[in-house]
Design brief:
The complex is a heterodimer.
Chain A (H helix, E strand, L loop, with lengths): L2 H12 L4 H25 L3 H4 L1 E2 L6 H9 L4 H13 L2 H18 L12 H28 L8 E4 L8 E4 L3 H46 L1
Helix pairs in contact in A: 1-2, 1-6, 2-5, 2-8, 5-7, 6-7, 7-8
Chain B lengths: L2 H12 L4 H25 L8 E2 L6 H9 L4 H13 L1 H22 L9 H6 L7 H28 L7 E4 L8 E4 L3 H42 L5 H19 L2 H9 L1
Antiparallel strand pairs in B: 1-3, 2-3
Helix pairs in contact in B: 1-2, 1-5, 2-4, 2-8, 4-7, 5-7, 7-8
Classes of the chains: A mainly alpha, B mainly alpha.
Chain lengths: 219, 262
């Protein structure tokens, strides 16, 4: 069980997505998932070992690390990737349900797999709203937990058992900051793509509904 | 999810590339991604653990390491490879869009559509002309830009491509100017020079491909201008033959067998 599962899930959804949805999948795969696995994971690999405090008091380093990093950046990043990809499962389930109904009734219920309409459209819109919501929630969480997206060189810690205010040094702060900004940038890009797709679908189907009603009225 | 997934995505683009594009892709996968994963990552694996400063002052090593390596070589290469591979996606998306349109025409029962079934549309190789030419050329241009930007960033950040053995550091909290020793400097220099050399080869291949596409474009234009009544079928047959040969050479054994049997 690894990131390959997420990749398979998103590839499955790709078939029923709009063009913008496919761009979103490509951005998530390449600029988020691949960057996470190939580069970011290794930066945070020894973060606890390399976190050093200017004191010999046993336990002080542990306590200070835990105070400043309640949840590590990299774990939050992984959670964000999982939560943001999960709403696509709604679409997968709905499509599976449809196909099951088609087999059961032995007839094609819908015109073609490329067209999303009716119930599937609602599910798709809900999944878009959920995706955007999760992205925003995680960005806010990052901001609140770490007081912005900067990673300082030095943090001052005075929690027991540290005997006084102690200097603690974080490892690779500049590299971590660069990748955090990268994460924020790609998240914002994904939010923008989701919003554009949402607007596009709502606009397209409103026009369709309006035209149908108008032709009915004329008739 | 790893570099293998990128290989799958880019492998699909390979079918619609020129011969130089196929060479570029091979160089990318074998001499850059594979070397990165199999060798370079091990060389840089212990970079901070074995970065030693001649002081017992806690925190001095962390601060000095961060000062000299704002972003590690290995991460910069990983980002460079990801960014350089991404423009090929533009071509993949364009091809997918064209296939989608043809499938739609086929389903509507359009008489202009010359395909017998959907499988044929899926397997078809598109020629690099028209709007696909523009997409392909833009993707090569972006690749060149990304390669150049990353090479410059590398040179700028590390003052050249050599990894020194010793660095002098006096960032706070180091009490004075302290000697810090980098782990495996010679091996890192060798790999850095290797990666830069392969980047340069990729830049040259991209420039050659760009020139080839531009030359082909201008030749085609001058042919059209010179021969307005040129018979389209004859030209198509020759180029279709060339396309088929390219397909046979670059596809797997199974496809070759199918080609022979059909």
């Amino acid at each position: 069980m690894s990131w390959g599962f997420l990749r398979d899930l998103l590839s499955g959804v790709n078939k029923y997505s709009t063009g913008i949805g496919r761009i979103w999948v490509a951005v998530v795969f390449i600029f988020r998932l691949l960057v996470y696995v190939a580069a970011a994971e290794n930066i945070w690999k020894y973060e606890h070992d390399e976190f050093e405090c200017n004191i010999k008091q046993p336990g002080c380093e542990n306590v200070c690390f835990d105070h400043f990093f309640p949840v590590s950046h990299i774990r939050l990043w992984a959670l964000q990737l999982i939560m943001v990809s999960t709403p696509s499962l709604l679409v997968v389930f709905h499509v599976a349900y449809r196909e099951n109904q088609e087999k059961h009734h032995n007839q094609k219920l819908y015109k073609s797999p490329g067209e999303i309409d009716g119930g599937l459209l609602c599910t798709y819109l809900i999944s878009l709203i959920l995706k955007t919501g999760f992205e925003i929630v995680f960005l806010v969480l990052f901001y609140k937990l770490y007081n912005g997206f900067k990673v300082p060189h030095l943090v001052k810690c005075d929690i027991r058992p540290c005997p006084n205010t102690v200097d603690c040094y974080i490892s690779k702060p500049t590299e971590k900051m660069i990748f955090l900004y990268f994460l924020v940038g790609t998240s914002c890009l994904c939010i923008v793509l989701n919003l554009i797709e949402l607007s596009y679908l709502i606009f397209k189907y409103s026009i369709k509904c309006y035209l149908e009603r108008y032709t009915k009225k004329c008739q | 999810m790893d570099w293998g997934a990128l290989h799958t995505i880019l492998g699909g683009v390979n079918k619609h590339s020129t011969s130089i594009g196929k060479i570029w892709l091979t160089v990318l996968f074998i001499f850059r991604i594979m070397i990165l994963v199999v060798a370079a990552e091990r060389v840089w694996g212990d970079e901070q653990d074995d970065f030693v400063c001649n002081t017992l002052q806690p925190g001095c090593k962390n601060v000095c390491y961060d000062h000299f390596f704002p972003i590690s070589h290995i991460r910069l290469w990983a980002l460079q490879l990801i960014f350089v591979s991404t423009p090929a996606l533009l071509v993949a998306m364009h091809v997918a869009y064209r296939r989608h349109e043809k499938k739609r025409q086929f389903r509507k029962g359009d008489q202009k559509c010359e395909y017998k079934d959907i499988e044929e549309i899926r397997k078809q190789r598109f020629r690099i002309e028209g709007s696909l030419w523009w997409t392909y050329t833009s993707s090569i241009f972006f690749r060149l830009v990304f390669e150049a930007v990353f090479m410059y960033a590398f040179y700028f950040m590390y003052d050249g491509f050599r990894m020194p053995r010793l660095m002098k550091c006096n960032a706070w909290p180091c009490p004075n100017t302290v000697d810090c020793f980098v782990s495996r400097p010679t091996e890192k220099t060798v790999f850095t020079i290797f990666m830069i050399a392969v980047s340069s080869i990729c830049i040259l291949l991209n420039v050659a491909e760009l020139c080839y596409l531009l030359t082909k474009f201008f030749l085609r234009r001058s042919k059209k201008a010179g021969n307005p009544k040129h018979h389209p079928n004859h030209e198509n047959k020759e180029e279709t033959k060339q396309n088929e040969m390219n397909e046979l050479i670059s596809d797997s054994c199974q496809n070759t067998v199918i080609g022979f049997s059909s």
